[in-house]
Protein backbone atom coordinates (compact mmCIF):
# COMPACT_ATOMS: atom_id res chain seq x y z
CA UNK A 1 0.00 0.00 0.00
CA UNK A 2 2.72 2.50 0.89
CA UNK A 3 4.26 2.20 -2.57
CA UNK A 4 0.86 2.83 -4.19
CA UNK A 5 0.32 5.96 -2.08
CA UNK A 6 3.79 7.20 -3.00
CA UNK A 7 3.18 6.49 -6.70
CA UNK A 8 -0.10 8.40 -6.85
CA UNK A 9 0.84 11.35 -4.62
CA UNK A 10 1.23 14.63 -6.49
CA UNK A 11 1.47 18.29 -5.66
CA UNK A 12 -1.85 20.13 -5.56
CA UNK A 13 -2.22 23.89 -5.18
CA UNK A 14 -5.98 24.26 -5.77
CA UNK A 15 -8.49 22.97 -3.25
CA UNK A 16 -12.27 22.65 -3.32
CA UNK A 17 -14.54 23.99 -0.57
CA UNK A 18 -15.20 20.64 1.13
CA UNK A 19 -13.67 20.58 4.59
CA UNK A 20 -11.93 17.30 5.43
CA UNK A 21 -12.75 15.67 8.77
CA UNK A 22 -10.46 16.90 11.53
CA UNK A 23 -9.79 13.27 12.45
CA UNK A 24 -8.11 12.75 9.04
CA UNK A 25 -5.78 15.67 9.75
CA UNK A 26 -5.02 14.37 13.24
CA UNK A 27 -4.35 10.93 11.73
CA UNK A 28 -1.74 12.45 9.41
CA UNK A 29 -0.07 14.30 12.29
CA UNK A 30 -0.15 11.16 14.44
CA UNK A 31 1.52 9.26 11.61
CA UNK A 32 4.17 11.97 11.24
CA UNK A 33 5.14 11.75 14.91
CA UNK A 34 6.03 8.07 14.41
CA UNK A 35 8.96 8.95 12.13
CA UNK A 36 12.50 8.09 13.17
CA UNK A 37 14.63 10.94 14.47
CA UNK A 38 18.26 11.54 15.31
CA UNK A 39 18.93 10.29 18.85
CA UNK A 40 15.15 9.79 19.17
CA UNK A 41 14.87 13.53 19.83
CA UNK A 42 11.52 13.88 18.03
CA UNK A 43 12.33 17.55 17.33
CA UNK A 44 9.16 18.36 15.38
CA UNK A 45 6.19 20.47 16.29
CA UNK A 46 3.01 20.89 14.28
CA UNK A 47 0.77 23.95 14.29
CA UNK A 48 -2.69 23.44 12.79
CA UNK A 49 -4.22 26.63 11.40
CA UNK A 50 -7.95 26.84 10.71
CA UNK A 51 -8.53 30.54 11.45
CA UNK A 52 -9.13 32.38 8.17
CA UNK A 53 -7.62 35.66 9.39
CA UNK A 54 -4.38 33.91 10.32
CA UNK A 55 -4.30 32.08 6.97
CA UNK A 56 -4.86 35.39 5.14
CA UNK A 57 -2.05 37.07 7.11
CA UNK A 58 0.35 34.20 6.39
CA UNK A 59 -0.48 34.51 2.69
CA UNK A 60 0.01 38.28 2.73
CA UNK A 61 3.44 38.02 4.39
CA UNK A 62 4.55 35.14 2.16
CA UNK A 63 3.41 36.79 -1.08
CA UNK A 64 5.23 40.01 -0.25
CA UNK A 65 8.53 38.13 -0.03
CA UNK A 66 7.69 35.91 -3.01
CA UNK A 67 6.94 38.92 -5.21
CA UNK A 68 10.34 40.44 -4.41
CA UNK A 69 12.04 37.11 -5.13
CA UNK A 70 10.28 36.66 -8.49
CA UNK A 71 10.89 40.25 -9.57
CA UNK A 72 14.62 39.87 -8.85
CA UNK A 73 14.97 36.47 -10.56
CA UNK A 74 17.13 36.45 -13.67
CA UNK A 75 18.46 34.14 -16.34
CA UNK A 76 17.87 30.41 -16.07
CA UNK A 77 15.91 30.71 -12.83
CA UNK A 78 13.51 33.25 -14.33
CA UNK A 79 13.05 31.06 -17.42
CA UNK A 80 12.42 28.00 -15.24
CA UNK A 81 9.75 29.84 -13.26
CA UNK A 82 8.06 31.09 -16.43
CA UNK A 83 8.23 27.71 -18.19
CA UNK A 84 6.70 25.95 -15.19
CA UNK A 85 3.98 28.56 -14.70
CA UNK A 86 5.21 29.35 -11.18
CA UNK A 87 4.48 32.82 -9.85
CA UNK A 88 4.52 34.75 -6.60
CA UNK A 89 0.82 34.33 -5.86
CA UNK A 90 0.13 31.71 -3.20
CA UNK A 91 -3.67 31.45 -3.11
CA UNK A 92 -3.44 28.02 -1.52
CA UNK A 93 -2.30 29.62 1.74
CA UNK A 94 -5.72 31.16 2.26
CA UNK A 95 -7.90 28.83 0.17
CA UNK A 96 -6.99 25.49 1.74
CA UNK A 97 -9.25 24.42 4.61
CA UNK A 98 -6.23 23.68 6.80
CA UNK A 99 -2.62 24.78 7.05
CA UNK A 100 -0.12 22.74 8.98
CA UNK A 101 3.04 24.62 9.85
CA UNK A 102 5.82 22.18 10.65
CA UNK A 103 8.64 23.34 12.89
CA UNK A 104 11.95 21.81 13.91
CA UNK A 105 13.36 22.43 17.38
CA UNK A 106 16.91 23.64 16.78
CA UNK A 107 18.07 22.57 20.25
CA UNK A 108 18.35 19.00 19.01
CA UNK A 109 20.94 17.46 16.68
CA UNK A 110 19.70 16.55 13.22
CA UNK A 111 16.46 18.43 13.88
CA UNK A 112 15.97 19.56 10.28
CA UNK A 113 16.61 16.12 8.79
CA UNK A 114 14.45 14.40 11.39
CA UNK A 115 11.58 16.84 10.89
CA UNK A 116 11.65 16.29 7.13
CA UNK A 117 11.39 12.54 7.73
CA UNK A 118 8.20 13.22 9.69
CA UNK A 119 6.91 15.40 6.84
CA UNK A 120 7.43 12.50 4.43
CA UNK A 121 5.39 10.25 6.71
CA UNK A 122 2.66 12.90 6.84
CA UNK A 123 2.51 13.22 3.05
CA UNK A 124 1.83 9.50 2.68
CA UNK A 125 -0.79 9.56 5.45
CA UNK A 126 -2.57 12.47 3.74
CA UNK A 127 -2.54 10.54 0.47
CA UNK A 128 -4.03 7.53 2.24
CA UNK A 129 -6.94 9.77 3.30
CA UNK A 130 -7.29 11.15 -0.26
CA UNK A 131 -6.12 14.57 0.87
CA UNK A 132 -3.77 16.77 -1.10
CA UNK A 133 -1.08 19.30 -0.33
CA UNK A 134 1.97 21.14 -1.60
CA UNK A 135 5.20 21.36 0.41
CA UNK A 136 5.55 25.13 0.52
CA UNK A 137 8.80 26.47 1.94
CA UNK A 138 8.32 30.22 2.40
CA UNK A 139 11.23 32.58 1.70
CA UNK A 140 10.55 34.40 4.99
CA UNK A 141 9.95 31.73 7.64
CA UNK A 142 10.94 33.96 10.56
CA UNK A 143 8.29 36.56 9.68
CA UNK A 144 5.63 33.88 9.48
CA UNK A 145 6.83 32.37 12.76
CA UNK A 146 6.25 35.74 14.43
CA UNK A 147 2.63 35.85 13.24
CA UNK A 148 1.88 32.59 15.06
CA UNK A 149 4.02 33.34 18.13
CA UNK A 150 6.33 30.40 17.51
CA UNK A 151 9.07 29.96 20.11
CA UNK A 152 12.42 31.31 18.90
CA UNK A 153 13.92 27.83 19.32
CA UNK A 154 11.66 26.58 16.51
CA UNK A 155 12.50 26.86 12.81
CA UNK A 156 9.61 26.83 10.35
CA UNK A 157 10.44 24.10 7.83
CA UNK A 158 7.32 23.93 5.69
CA UNK A 159 3.72 25.00 5.35
CA UNK A 160 1.34 22.28 4.20
CA UNK A 161 -1.99 23.58 2.87
CA UNK A 162 -4.36 20.62 3.07
CA UNK A 163 -7.68 19.83 1.45
CA UNK A 164 -9.43 17.95 -1.30
CA UNK A 165 -8.06 18.69 -4.79
CA UNK A 166 -9.87 21.08 -7.11
CA UNK A 167 -7.63 20.31 -10.06
CA UNK A 168 -6.99 17.15 -12.00
CA UNK A 169 -3.22 17.09 -12.18
CA UNK A 170 -1.15 14.21 -13.37
CA UNK A 171 1.89 13.26 -11.39
CA UNK A 172 5.11 14.36 -13.02
CA UNK A 173 7.29 11.51 -14.19
CA UNK A 174 9.98 10.09 -11.94
CA UNK A 175 13.45 8.95 -12.85
CA UNK A 176 13.85 5.24 -13.48
CA UNK A 177 15.37 3.20 -10.66
CA UNK A 178 18.47 2.35 -12.69
CA UNK A 179 19.17 6.10 -13.09
CA UNK A 180 19.32 6.73 -9.34
CA UNK A 181 20.70 3.47 -7.93
CA UNK A 182 24.26 2.16 -7.84
CA UNK A 183 25.59 -0.93 -6.08
CA UNK A 184 28.65 -0.86 -3.83
CA UNK A 185 30.37 2.05 -5.66
CA UNK A 186 29.52 4.85 -8.05
UniProtKB/TrEMBL annotation:
Gene3D superfamilies named in the record: NADH Oxidase
An example Gene Ontology molecular-function term: oxidoreductase activity
Name assigned to this protein: Nitroreductase
Cross-referenced InterPro entries: Nitroreductase (IPR029479), Nitroreductase-like (IPR000415), Nitroreductase/BluB (IPR050627)
Keyword terms, alphabetized: Flavoprotein, FMN, Oxidoreductase
Domain Nitroreductase: 7-164
Amino acid sequence: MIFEFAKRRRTIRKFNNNIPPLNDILYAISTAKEAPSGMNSQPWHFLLITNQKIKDKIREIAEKAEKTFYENSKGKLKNFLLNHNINWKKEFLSNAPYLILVFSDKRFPFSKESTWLSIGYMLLALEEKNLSTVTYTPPNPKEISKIVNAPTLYNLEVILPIGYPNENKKKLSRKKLEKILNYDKF
